[in-house]
Design brief:
Order of helices and strands: EHEEHEHEEH
Structural class: alpha/beta
Number of domains: 1
Number of strands: 6
Largest sheet: 6 strands, parallel
Shape: globular
CATH class: Alpha Beta
Radius of gyration: 13 Å
Distance between the termini: 12 Å
CATH superfamily: Flavodoxin domain
Strand content: 15-25%
Amino acid sequence: MSKAVVVYWSGTGNTEAMAKAIEKGLKEGGAEVTLLETAQAKADIIDQYDLFAFGCPAMGNEVLEEEAFEPFFTSIEGKLAGKKVALFGTYDWGDGQWMRDWQKRTADAGATVFEEGFSVQQESSDEEASAAFGKRFAAF
């Protein structure tokens, strides 16, 4: 059984809803799952899990949230080599450049990035699609 962690930051609750649905899908896929808000996560999680799902909405000019999530992600970025990572989040404007930039950054850190990242329009967390994403990630 794989051990998975879902770490997310959510301002309006949409990314949180995605995180909870991904957690459900991971469990349906047979993984043992821990769900953490960014404030609860520490850099040592890298040594404790097999699968890492990180969630953050697009902020400002299509960037990761800068006060909590960006510092957390920066703290683990250098330890992602060889790790299986899924990225997810919501957006309200733009064309998803934040997700493409985040995928590249994660791959450049040496992680094996699952699919192409999973993003949905801000007003819809699309719980069914999020759970399916989590279930597929469990088998990754």
